[in-house]
Amino acid sequence: MRRHLLIVDGYNVIGNWPELAKLKATGHFAAARDRLLDIVAEYRAHENADIIVVFDAMYVPGIGENYSKWNLQVVFTQQDETADAYIERLANDLNGPLVQLSVVTSDQAEQWTVFSRGALRISSREFGQEIRRSEREFNHSTDPFIMREPKRNQIWSKEQLSKLDHARRKLTRREPNDKKNQ
Questions:
Q1: What angle do CA 25, 37, 102 make, to 5 degrees?
Q2: Per-residue pLDDT tens for 119-145?
Q3: Residue 125 to residue 87: CA distance in whole angstroms
Q4: What pTM, to 2 d.p., does this model score?
Q5: Range from 44-58, 101-115, 131-145 carrying the lowest mean pLDDT
Q6: Contact 124, 17 (CB under 8 A)
Q7: Minimal CA–CA distance to 76: which of 29, 119, 111, 27?
Q8: Among the residues of 26-157, which ranges form H helices?
Q9: What is the DSSP-derived secondary structure letter of residue 32?
Q10: What is the largest CA-CA distance in the chain?
C-alpha cells in the first residue's frame, strides 16, 4: 500500500483562505499559523496521511526549525530559503513508487515544478473544500452515535402509565374522605 504524504505551503494557504488571510492582514501571523495547524491536524485525524506544513522564514526570520505538533511535521525554513525551494527539494527526495505525494499550493509555478517531479498538486482553495468534505463525512458518520439522546428503558407502556396515573388520582381523592370517616 502506498503511503500518502501531503506537503502544505503554509503561508500560501493562509493567504488564500479568507478566515486566515484576515488574521494575517491584521498582523496576527502566529494566530493564523496556529489556526491553520489546528485545521490541518483535525483533517489529519480523519484521513490517513502524513502531513508536512512548510512555512518560509519571511515572517519569522532566522528560525529554521522543525517540530511535530498533533502528528504534523511543521517546518520553518532557514532565513535564506523559501518554502517553494524546500518543497521542491522534498518533492524530489520523497516522491517514489511507495509514496503518493501531493503538494498544496496555489502558486502556479510551484504547482508545475512539483508536478514535473511526479507529485500531485492541489490548490489552496481545493484543499479547503477537501477539508470541509472530510469534516462533513466524519460528522455524518458519527452523528447517530453522538447526537442520540440517552433513552430510559421504560418497563411500562403508555397505556399502563395512564391507568397507573388514573388509579393514583383516584386514591388521592379518597384520602380526605377516608380521614373524615375515621
A1: 105
A2: 889 999 999 999 999 888 887 765 555
A3: 19
A4: 0.71
A5: 131-145
A6: yes
A7: 29
A8: 29-46, 83-94, 108-116, 124-146
A9: H
A10: 102
